[in-house]
């Protein structure tokens, strides 16, 4: 007689809506075990019994062979007496109690579904909404928990008999796939003109014809509407720019497959993995010379943002078009992306010539994510579709639930409970009223989805952030102000599961400093509970405040004053150069800043790259793009003072001005500037190591989106014996700030 | 204490310190002035009563000086209560060493402004403080006026469907002051807009009797701050059309140089009227009939949602939140 064993297994993590129960069912059957499995609010609960060896194999395979989309966070096993189950069953969900089961991110169409899409014999042949438990919409269609069809935007589509059979068959790939559907019962694709009138013919084929004719087509995706034009058609791309009021910010390009991608960009193995992964972000990659892409797609950039199709509709459209297409967010200027059908028709009616749309509502807006591969890693520049709302694991348990309200631009919020941090998708600039509403509604939605009621609310002390205003309006909670650059470093610590203390190098545009000046080039001694400012870039005035951000030439003036007569930048801006110097000298609306971003602005304008910008960070981005990566020269810069250290960043600007006057090529100057900044950061860190004994450096802040600066700085720091932390899962820019705020608030709350 | 630019910091200070200590029903609405009903042997009626202190640097600027500013400012606060201004007091705090010629100049322009506004300065006070304890000359004026029409005006009276009007191009006063502070090369013929507003207000009140809900002069903090006060006090949204807000090109130019948003720049002779939506055109005609209102405009509407917010619809179709600034404008871009 074999020994019988019975265990109760509780699995937590992303285990709902990912085919976990059918996987358990099949596994138990294969091993000849009896029992049952069901979803509860905290995950999946399994009772299983049978031969000891079988149960043991079951527990091993449970984690080893778990479905691709699942992410197991914790497995709890309790032994018990066999109950005499006969056979293995899947029981109904148990919706009681607080909903803490995890909603997964939207996922690119899987290979199984792609095969059906291409198979003329399959009933979903060429059906744009094919999906299964391994793929398809999730976060963007969920209205509430538990994650079941009635609480998604698929609720309005009654399943046909065939779909229902698959849905209820534990052995089927579509068992409990909430958004499952087919041409007989599911959403329908339509092509409409700009007035909303339906156009006849095959919508995909007609849309492709319009694109080939140079027209702009709005395409309803997972998280909102996109605007598409043929990527090689300069006239079409330029027309799209004009209508969107987007002057120069690069457009993303969607390609059919890796083969097409390789014709446009240099793609190594890590880039290929990012492109073909289930999140399908836009990947910034070095552009090949002669790539067949219109100049207006990414002016001033050597790289190109590429993504692969992530819905069946994209696959069908690209197959029909047979060449890459620009696929950019469906909005005007900096507005949030349109996602509701009526609103899209109103807002995009003046831009798009036609709408490729359908009747499955989008509940939550989500932009495309943007990443950039890095030597030995990746920088996430925008974390949205495909990543959010999956939780980030925290090193320590959060005592009381925390809401962190983030910054102002590139807004995200973060909810933290237990050992999980839920960072929202990228929302955008809160000054925009639609975005502000997405922010406040999104906080409520997340609180409901994850069963979190915040007791601690963290915010940025900048008095004019709308996120700060919202945070302070929440009553009955403890408020925690987290200094902007401390939050950046804490974000990097939380991102790496490190507790610090570290030397935090926080380089960004700017943030509110407790001394009333604007910080942005900071060397902090920081852990999660606190920080001390041990150094910073030399302060310069920002002549005219925000005007100095919009017009980088003003920063060149602030740095160089009258010391370099005959500079081209002064000549180009002769009309106002003297007045701007007076502004700076008189202090009238010219706040002092130690910002590294403004330092890049000054050099970019000095080199004639950008006097005025049309999107945030443009001058610095184009300076990086201009830099010659082969250049090894290094501009010198002094580090003075002791408490705190002051990095004489003006030395770098003056060295660049001298080289420019001597006729040195701007790419070489830009290279020497990057190297010089990396070198002086390393020296400042070495000086801080001497006084503090700290040997780890965390690099954070929007300036470290600059791959050249990040790589050069990290190399030098490592060569000097430092351990270097960089971002992994959240952006170094303000999109990652909410995670840092949450980590600090939780640490201060005492774990 | 933070420097008072008329923003949220000042508002918070006023609410936390003064309102708390002096609490009474006349002060509580924090309007431009208080309305005092009287009922005595000589008759019944309503007095408007207000006070304001003037600290401006420089004291003399294109289009005016601290003297006419002190008269017009208080006259206008009375006008915003719907009153006819009658009597003013004037209190001076002078720094030791302040030139007598300058004082004469200031006083002369006060006399001139008072005559133009048909008010009399009937009482006053002067103190001289040690050098360095004040910046030249500060003036406090208090004013009394008569409310002769059956109006009840309040920042809390705006309702959805109302129209929002401004009496003329905004930002000239603040831009003139800023230019006078620096020694700039930019050539901009900008003079302060300081002017008494009670006559144009009387014309408006008579043209659309009972239809004016709110009057506010857009002084410190500019149009944006005043509209935020209205939105908060009335629990409504104010939706501005960017293209409809009148700003002179030379003011726009100076604001661009200085990095200021004209919506937040002070005026001293412009006001906001919230008027019943059905009477907006008539109200506009009444404003334009007065020389000070030749460039008046309907700039927006009042909506129910989102409560307590001011929104600006921009040229490209976006909607921007126009928040109250806490202190001096600080860049928010990271
Ligand atoms: Fe930042
Ligand atoms: Mg006043
Ligand atoms: Zn699939
Ligand atoms: Zn079906």
TrEMBL record, chain A:
Positions of the Acylphosphatase-like domain: 6-92
Transmembrane segments: none
Catalytic residues identified in the record: 21, 39
PROSITE patterns tied to this protein: ACYLPHOSPHATASE_1, ACYLPHOSPHATASE_3, YRDC
Enzyme class: ligase
Sorted UniProt keywords: Hydrolase, Ligase, Metal-binding, Zinc, Zinc-finger
Pathway: Protein modification; [NiFe] hydrogenase maturation
Cited Gene3D superfamilies: 3.30.110.120, 3.30.420.360, 3.30.420.40, 3.90.870.50
Domain YrdC-like residue range list: 201-386
EC number, as in UniProt: 6.2.-.-
NCBIfam families: hypF (TIGR00143)
PANTHER family: CARBAMOYLTRANSFERASE (PTHR42959), CARBAMOYLTRANSFERASE HYPF (PTHR42959:SF1)
Family: Belongs to the carbamoyltransferase HypF family.
Name under which the protein is recorded: Carbamoyltransferase
């Amino acid at each position: 007689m074999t020994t019988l064993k019975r265990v109760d297994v509780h699995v937590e993590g992303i285990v709902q809506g990912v085919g976990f129960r059918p996987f358990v069912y099949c596994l138990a059957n294969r091993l000849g075990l009896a029992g049952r499995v069901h979803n509860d609010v905290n995950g999946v609960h399994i009772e299983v019994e049978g031969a000891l060896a079988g149960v043991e194999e079951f527990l091993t395979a449970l984690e080893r062979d778990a479905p691709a989309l699942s992410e197991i966070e914790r497995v709890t096993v309790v032994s018990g007496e066999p109950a005499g189950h006969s056979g293995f069953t899947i029981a109904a969900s148990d919706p009681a109690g607080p909903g803490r089961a995890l909603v997964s991110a939207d996922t690119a169409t899987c290979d199984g579904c792609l095969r059906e899409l291409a198979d003329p014999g399959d009933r979903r042949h060429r059906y744009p909404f094919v999906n299964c438990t391994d793929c398809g919409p999730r976060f963007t269609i969920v209205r509430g928990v538990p994650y079941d069809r009635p609480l998604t935007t698929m609720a309005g589509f009654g399943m046909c008999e065939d779909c229902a059979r698959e849905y209820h068959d534990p052995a089927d790939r579509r068992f409990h796939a909430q958004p499952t559907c087919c041409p007989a019962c599911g959403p329908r694709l339509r092509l409409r003109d700009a007035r909303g009138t339906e156009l006849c013919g095959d919508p995909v084929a007609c849309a492709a014809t319009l694109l080939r004719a140079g027209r702009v087509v709005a395409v309803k995706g997972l998280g909102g509407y996109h605007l598409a034009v043929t990527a090689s058609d300069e006239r079409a791309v330029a027309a799209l720019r004009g209508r969107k009021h987007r002057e120069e910010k690069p457009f993303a390009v969607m390609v059919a497959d890796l083969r097409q991608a390789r014709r446009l960009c240099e793609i190594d193995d890590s880039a290929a993995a990012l492109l073909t992964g289930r999140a399908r972000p836009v990947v910034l990659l070095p552009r090949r010379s002669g790539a067949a892409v219109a100049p207006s797609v990414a002016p001033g950039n050597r790289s190109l943002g590429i993504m692969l199709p992530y819905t069946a509709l994209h696959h069908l459209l690209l197959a029909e078009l047979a060449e890459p297409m620009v696929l950019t967010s469906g909005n005007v200027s900096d507005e949030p992306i349109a996602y509701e059908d009526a609103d899209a028709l109103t807002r995009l009616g003046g831009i798009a010539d036609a709408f490729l749309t359908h009747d499955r509502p989008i509940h939550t807006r989500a932009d495309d994510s943007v990443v950039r591969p890095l030597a030995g890693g990746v920088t996430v520049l925008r974390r949205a579709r495909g990543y959010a709302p999956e939780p980030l694991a925290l090193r320590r348990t959060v005592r009381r639930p925390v809401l962190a309200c983030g910054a102002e631009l590139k807004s995200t919020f973060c909810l933290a409970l237990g050992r999980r941090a839920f960072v929202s998708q990228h929302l955008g600039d809160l000054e925009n009223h639609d975005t502000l509403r997405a922010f406040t509604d999104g906080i409520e939605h997340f609180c409901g989805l994850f069963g979190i009621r915040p007791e601690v609310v963290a915010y940025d002390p900048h008095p004019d952030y709308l996120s700060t205003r919202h945070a302070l309006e929440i009553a009955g909670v403890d408020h925690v102000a987290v200094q902007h650059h401390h939050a950046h470093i804490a974000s990097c610590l939380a991102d790496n599961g490190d507790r610090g203390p570290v030397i935090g190098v926080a380089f960004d545009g700017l943030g509110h400093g407790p001394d009333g000046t604007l910080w942005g080039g900071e060397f902090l001694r920081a852990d999660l509970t606190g920080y001390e400012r041990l150094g910073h870039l030399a302060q310069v005035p920002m002549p005219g405040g925000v005007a100095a951000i919009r017009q980088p030439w003003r920063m060149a003036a602030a740095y160089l004053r009258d010391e370099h007569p005959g500079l081209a930048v002064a000549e180009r801006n002769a009309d106002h150069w003297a007045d701007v110097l007076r502004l700076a000298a008189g202090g009238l609306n010219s706040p002092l800043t130690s910002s590294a971003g403004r330092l890049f602005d000054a050099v970019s304008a000095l080199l004639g790259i950008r006097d005025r910008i049309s999107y945030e960070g443009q001058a610095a981005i184009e300076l990086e793009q201009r830099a010659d990566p082969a250049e090894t020269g290094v501009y010198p810069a002094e580090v003075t003072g002791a408490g705190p250290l002051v990095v004489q960043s003006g030395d770098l600007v003056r060295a660049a001005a001298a080289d420019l006057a001597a006729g040195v090529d701007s790419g070489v100057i830009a290279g020497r500037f990057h190297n010089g900044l990396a070198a002086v950061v390393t020296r400042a860190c070495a000086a801080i190591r001497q006084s503090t004994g700290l040997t780890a450096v965390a690099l954070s802040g929007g300036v470290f989106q600059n791959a050249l600066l990040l790589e050069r700085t990290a190399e030098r720091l490592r060569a000097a014996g430092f351990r270097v932390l960089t971002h992994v899962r959240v952006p170094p820019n303000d999109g990652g700030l909410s995670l840092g705020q949450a980590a600090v608030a939780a640490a201060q709350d005492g774990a | 204490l933070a420097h008072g630019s008329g923003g949220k910091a000042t508002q918070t200070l006023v609410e936390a310190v003064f309102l708390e200590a002096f609490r009474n029903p006349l002060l509580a609405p924090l309007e431009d002035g208080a309305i005092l009903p009287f009922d005595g042997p000589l008759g019944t009626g309503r007095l408007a009563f207000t006070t304001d202190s003037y600290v401006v640097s420089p004291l003399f600027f294109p289009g005016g000086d601290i003297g006419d500013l002190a008269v017009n400012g208080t006259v206008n606060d009375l006008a915003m209560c719907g009153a006819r201004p009658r009597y003013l007091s004037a209190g001076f705090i002078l720094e030791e060493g302040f030139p007598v010629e300058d004082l004469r100049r200031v006083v002369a322009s006060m006399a001139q402004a008072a005559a133009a506004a048909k008010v009399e300065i009937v009482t006053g006070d002067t103190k001289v403080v040690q050098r360095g304890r004040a910046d030249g000359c500060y003036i406090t004026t208090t004013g009394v006026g008569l409310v002769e029409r059956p109006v009840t005006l309040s920042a809390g009276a705006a309702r959805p469907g109302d129209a929002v009007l401004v009496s003329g191009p905004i930002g000239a006063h603040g831009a003139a002051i800023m230019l006078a502070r620096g020694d700039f090369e930019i050539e901009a013929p900008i003079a302060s807009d300081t002017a008494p507003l009670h006559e144009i207000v009387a014309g408006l009140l008579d043209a659309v009797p009972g239809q004016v809900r709110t009057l506010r002069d857009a002084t410190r903090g500019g149009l944006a701050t005043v509209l935020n006060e209205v939105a908060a006090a009335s629990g409504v949204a104010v939706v501005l059309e960017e293209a409809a807000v009148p700003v002179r090109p030379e003011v726009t130019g100076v604001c661009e140089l200085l990095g200021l948003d004209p919506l937040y720049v002070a005026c001293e002779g412009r006001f906001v009227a919230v008027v019943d939506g059905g009477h907006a055109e008539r109200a506009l005609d009444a404003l334009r009939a007065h020389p000070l209102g030749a460039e008046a405009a309907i700039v927006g509407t009042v909506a129910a949602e989102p409560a307590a917010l001011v929104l600006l619809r921009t040229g490209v179709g976006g909607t921007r939140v126009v928040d109250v600034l806490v202190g001096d404008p600080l860049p928010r871009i990271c």
